Amino acid sequence: MTNAWMDMAASGGAMSLGLVVAAFVVVALLIGAFAVGIRVKRRESPPPRPEEQPHLPEGGPVGEIQENRTPQEMPRSEERLLPHELGQQGSRSAPDQERPRWDEGSSGSFGGGGGGRH
Questions:
Q1: Which residues, including other chains, have CB under 8 Å from residue 72's CB and lie 6 or more apart?
Q2: Fewer beta carbons within 10 Å, N or C terminal of the chain?
């Protein structure tokens, strides 16, 4: 029986030694990764100085423009046009700039059932 206890103690010691070695390997890898990170950070260009930052235009900040837009019409052709043949397809200002409003009591609310009055 004494031999069994000695074998168990020896295997437990080997397991403990293995865990300690694994812990040292993990710590060494973390320290190495930290060192590599510092080296990479030192090679990066420094952040821009205040005079290199973008500035507001002379007239101040550009305001927001709200308008209704309509898409440009597709060019008519006898042959099928591919997307790269269309070029830039933008939009233009709509002739009617009045914003659409919901009529009182019409659908358009959540559920589409009208104003909810009985």
A1: 89, 90, 91, 92
A2: C
CA distance 4 to 31: 41
Instruction: Find, among 37, 96, 108, 36, the residue nearest to 68 by Cα.
Output: 96
List phi, psi (to 5°) of 86: -75, -30
* pTM exceeding the 0.85 threshold for the entire prediction: no
Residues comprising the chain, all counted:
118
Structure tokens at 82: 């591919």
pLDDT tens track for 90-106: 788 888 888 767 666 66
**Alpha-carbon dihedral 27, 31, 34, 38, rounded to 10 degrees:** 180
